[in-house]
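Before relying on records like the one below, remember that each one covers exactly one chain. Contacts with other chains, cofactors or solvent are not represented anywhere in the record.
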Amino acid sequence: MSDLGLLTYYLGLEVKQSPDCITITQEAYAQRILKEAAMDDYNPTCIPMEFGLQLSKGQDEPEIDSTLYRRRIGCLRYLMHTRPDMAFSVGILSRYMHSPRTSHGNTLKRVLRYLKGTIGYGLSYKKGRTKRLVGFSYSSHNTDPDDGRSTTGHLFCLGETPVTWCSQKQDTVALSSCEAEFMAATEAAKQAIWLQ
């Protein structure tokens, strides 16, 4: 083995290290995603998904190229290693990889436009900050009109920077938004116990 110095690049992760901060981004990888999608000239947007948007299987809509759709979603899923802000929208779009429709393609374009506007986002771990573990949980009740299941999510930060995050469909159908919140809080509590 040989010592090559401080880590600067590893599998698409760009690491910048200074005495008081470590920053991890995937800017070059994000630019490559936009270039492959021919969206590097599109106007950026400041939110990845419209508020209240409910996607469904859309059986009455025309189908789009599923291979291309899967490839772009796969690239975005890898990008989420440093982008917790995209977890919800990419998670929702991942549900339709088997048969993507026009509405899914349009929403994917919106996510890519958001990526263009936030291309330099990443994670910054600063020295000397609090070492306290702080967690957040959320649920989005009945976000899937096809099966009625809600979406659960949680985010845990060490100090101010996220260290783990998740956004996924709940295993069972919640009968109320209160029940969906309890399910989300339970998942977050299990993650908190494991992290501690």
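Helices lie at 27-36, 66-79, 87-94, 102-117, 177-195.
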